[in-house]
Amino acid sequence: MNGSQTRFLGIDLGTGSLKVAIVDETLAERAAASIPYTLETPLPGWAEIDVERWWDALVRACERLPASEREWVRAIGFSGQMHGVVLTDAAGRALRPAMLWPDTRARALLDAWPDSEDHPQPNPVAPGMAGPLLYWLTLHERTTAEAARWALQPKDWLRVRLSGGADEAFVADPSDACATALAAPDGAWDVALIERLGLPARWFAPLAPSSAPCGTLCAEAARVLGLPAGIVLATGAGDTPCAALGSGLHEDGDALLTTGTGGQIVVTSIVEPPARRGLHRYRSASGGWYAMAAMQNVGVALEAARGWLSCDWAQAYEEAFAVPPSQTLAFLPYLSGERSPWLDPAARGGWLGAGLGDTRGVLMRAAFEGVAFALRAGLDALRGVPSAAGAGDLGEGGAPHAPIAVLKLAGGGSVDARWRQLLADVLGAQLDAIDCPNAAARGAAMLGGVACGHWRMDELSAFAPASTRVAEPRADAALAQRYARFIDLYGRVRTWFAPVS
């Protein structure tokens, strides 16, 4: 397994696209491809997809990889969108479309997971998690539920398909299981909760480490994909832990900021992080832990503001950062509710304090600041600093109470240098952009390499991708005041949007 032509394939099964990447023994990317697809919304609030779209996307993506690279692949690892679920028969054939994390049909059932300040859930529970979705299925699609043998996470269904339905491929990993709202933070299935909800215990596959071998590539799948038959299939992990692994997060306290449609701040830990409302604490792909703040309104809020102001992205950046920020205008970006740190699905947003003299650039600048402030609120929660009390830290050039002083930076929503500088100033953290465009697929490929015995997990830290320092935080007392006002405004207006009984 040490020949110079050894390759590893990582498959990242995302919400809107499937990505594949082949890496070599130095974890340099040799080839990559991506195929997009769209979700189905048969009813308002539903989010589903025919799993055959995933399979077709995988076939098409592999066709774009050079045959000369595919022939040397020795193992496959998997990264998958988290929270969704695929109900299958005993052979792994889907009985209905997959239900995905944006789905909100189970919102009215969340009372089955009571949560309060005195008795918080181990992790925040959202309607698009596997637990609420499966609970909904038992109530509304009983015939399908009774016929089902397995309730698989998306990447686990794909692995079963690649194995040809082999028994050893029906497993789950802790990093995905702990995010279902049906397991303890360490990933172990919560049997008492599953029984209380009336869910069949047979649905839940046994757990295996993310880097464990669990089956091999069957001959038919190998033929279709142009890969060697019999190569090892790794269990795999959720996309967030795979991206953290692929981005080189290995040490205790390493932190990663990703900005896309939403935003995530992940901090690795060698021990179980403490429970904090509004934050997630999950198992990592390497067997450790990570804490995460998940903010829903980053790129989606900026895209909405840009559209309302009728400017393209080049104009948005240029006009926003060509003007000084308003000291009276604020933008709350919570256009689709918020997860971290508020756990407030009813939250809404917009501009407050606008004046007749405010130009398009001033409004767009406020939108960038509002998104940065929302990310800061999530980071403050991870730091253990109350957002309102921590607002003054910006004026001190950082966060004196916080250990998170450096954030690795990834995601297509953070490429403009002026935007990066604003993020550094607001977050009070140094930003180091990583050179890894396909981090989740890279992390999946790494798991494949461990599964086939090419590496040990503790050897992977030597392959961290290169990073470049792109921004240092600067002290700005006026920015600190605007952040304090942002937190105060959210607290004042949140009751406006509470559901009317």
Automatic annotation (TrEMBL):
Pfam families: FGGY_C, FGGY_N. It comes from the Bacteria. CDD domains: ASKHA_NBD_FGGY_EcXK-like. The keyword Kinase applies. InterPro entries: ATPase_NBD, Carb_kinase_FGGY, FGGY_C, FGGY_Carb_Kinase, FGGY_N. Keywords: Kinase, Transferase. GO terms for biological process: carbohydrate metabolic process. One of its GO terms (molecular function) is kinase activity. Residues 311-452 form the Carbohydrate kinase FGGY C-terminal domain. Residues 9-246 form the Carbohydrate kinase FGGY N-terminal domain. Belongs to the FGGY kinase family. This is Carbohydrate kinase.
